[in-house]
């Protein structure tokens, strides 16, 4: 009898032990299934909105630039690119500058729609660059993208062309014609979402594309397994030395401003994330105010560090100053009021830009067109307009 009871207890223990293990296995399997679903959801790329969000001018300051001066400056910066082999970095800068709405009476000028066709239609690209030139749009493992930094027939920076298309309002279903066939702009956006890395050399324009096109922002995983959202992207941008990056760091600052402006339309930053960006830009503004020259411009060392020009071969001093000053004035023109400098700072910079651009010879305007496009756009935005909205008819004579 005792042996029977002992045997029964042993069987019950074994049964209980097995039940517990079965339960634990079930929990582990269930947890694994949930984590797998979460992982798959994170790997899924964010949904895109049909039309990119639009960030519009928010100030009108005639003390910075008069209507007459604005018209004179913009007239000098018309996109006179009609003809063979227009540099692609000039085309996409001019498209961003003038917008797809822009048309010109001057037969030498290319309209906004024509510039976009050069970038997105291989047939048009083939016409202006010839059959010997490699296509601008190419296929890689993630999708369709422009070739970058491979000569004058390619884009100048990672995702610069795509960011331009976003800023001028190109919908995701807009047709794209490559040398291999037809697709839509959505394929190019999905490529940059898939290939994006927080460690890539240039990420300023990628951030801009994501902010303007992603609908209902969510975390997602890069192909490297990095969790990405707009707070992490903003943190990545703010980790850099102030002047580090393209155009003396100003494109990173512009990207931060655009994140703030998009966040005003649809929340993409956490409250803490937004406060961090505002605080960072306030500190940047203090540096710029402190280091503005008496004449009103900034140079490549706008953060107050020693000006190093011993290896400077790319730009003349005037070109560097227009670049630094025009870019700063552009991101300020879109920034929230709490990060702006005193009026005197803006006025001195605006007047210096106007006078300098008026004096530049045509040859220098042509060679420096990319960063002059930022200066011209900045001056228009400070009058509450996009450049295509400024009447140039008084300058035709």
Q: How is the topology of this model organized?
A:
Blueprint: H1 2-43, H2 67-76, H3 88-98, H4 112-120, H5 122-129, E1 137-139, E2 144-146, H6 160-167, E3 175-177, E4 182-184, H7 185-195, H8 204-213, E5 220-221, E6 227-228, H9 230-238, H10 250-265, H11 271-290, H12 317-334, H13 343-359, H14 362-367, H15 369-381
Antiparallel strand pairs: 1-2, 3-4, 5-6
Helix pairs in contact: 3-4, 3-6, 3-15, 4-5, 6-8, 8-10, 9-10, 9-11, 10-11, 10-12, 12-13, 12-15
Overview features:
Glycosyltransferase; two-stranded antiparallel ribbon; 52% helix; 15 helices; mainly alpha; two-stranded antiparallel sheet; 397 residues
Q: Can you tell me about this structure?
A:
The structure is a single chain. By secondary structure, the protein is mostly helical. It has a single domain (58-391), classed as Glycosyltransferase. 52% of the residues lie in helices and 4% in strands. The protein has helices spanning 2-43, 67-76, 88-98, 112-120, 122-129, 160-167, 185-195, 204-213, 230-238, 250-265, 271-290, 317-334, 343-359, 362-367, 369-381; strands at 137-139, 144-146, 175-177, 182-184, 220-221, 227-228. The strands form 3 sheets. Strands 1-2 form a two-stranded antiparallel ribbon. The chain has a two-stranded antiparallel ribbon with strand order 3-4. A hairpin with a 4-residue loop joins strand 3 (175-177) and strand 4. Helix 6 (160-167) packs parallel to helix 8 (204-213). The longest helix is centred in the first third of the chain and has 42 residues, at 2-43. It is globular. Mean pLDDT is 91; it is low at 33-42.
